[in-house]
Design brief:
alpha/beta; Rossmann fold; five-stranded parallel beta sheet; globular
Length: 119
């Protein structure tokens, strides 16, 4: 079972994503961080297989956290989450920084699961 860390400042969004992630029994949600700074700390202690990280958060945004995570662990598997409909520049920057892919809100359960299975 793959361990997933969910990073989103919205508890409602994090719960929705967690529900999708654990629905098939293939993945386990090991934690929920509310910003990029928490995500970096939790990534070190929880050692998730996949990090699902929102792009826009207070304290430290997702791209800054992604940059830090990839510097600390170049093998980290990070999926960026955005409600921006994959706005070109940020989408491209996330991939350039090492994100595996970008998923959009609102979530489509089958699409999220397919993405996580392919990582």
């Amino acid at each position: 079972m793959k361990k997933v860390l969910i990073v989103d400042d919205s508890i409602a969004v994090a719960r929705q994503l967690e529900k999708i992630v654990v629905s098939t029994g293939e993945f386990e949600a090991v934690g929920h961080a509310k910003n990029g700074a928490e995500a970096i700390k939790m990534n070190q202690t929880l050692k998730p297989d996949i990090v699902c990280m929102d792009m826009n958060m207070p304290v430290m945004d997702g791209l800054t956290a992604l940059r830090t995570l990839m510097a600390m662990d170049p093998k980290a598997k990070v999926v960026m989450v955005t409600s921006l409909g994959g706005v070109g520049d940020k989408f491209a920057e996330a991939l350039r920084l090492g994100a595996k892919t970008v998923i959009s809100k609102p979530f489509e359960a089958e699409g999220v699961l397919k993405t996580l299975r392919n990582i």
